[in-house]
Amino acid sequence: MPETYKKYRLTSMEEPTDEMLQALMEDVAKAARESSARAEAEKQRRFSEVLNAINLRRSQRNSSLNG
Predict the structure, then answer these.
(1) CA 65 to CA 59: how far, in whole Å?
(2) Percentage helix, strand, coil, to 5, in the chain?
């Protein structure tokens, strides 16, 4: 945890400095971007998995109809 956070807690009776708020917001934004990227990658992986399953079933159905 950065030193800035150790000096200030959200339950503190003191107002945070602008620098503390800026650092906190930057870290929150970074965490949000990383989380969003992980979620997007997982979504793409699942879509690909479903597409592969659909294509496999189609090819199996087509080969049983043709053969």
Answers:
(1) 10
(2) 80, 0, 20
Distance from the Cα of residue 29 to its chain's centroid: 12
1-55 pLDDT tens trace: 566 556 666 666 778 889 988 999 999 999 999 999 999 999 999 999 999 999 9
Task: Region of 39 please: left (phi>0), alpha (psi -120 to 50) or beta.
Answer: alpha
Which amino acid, residue 1?
M
Alpha-carbon span 14 to 9, nearest angstrom: 9
**pTM exceeds cut of 0.85:** no
Quick check: helix, strand or coil at residue 1?
A: coil
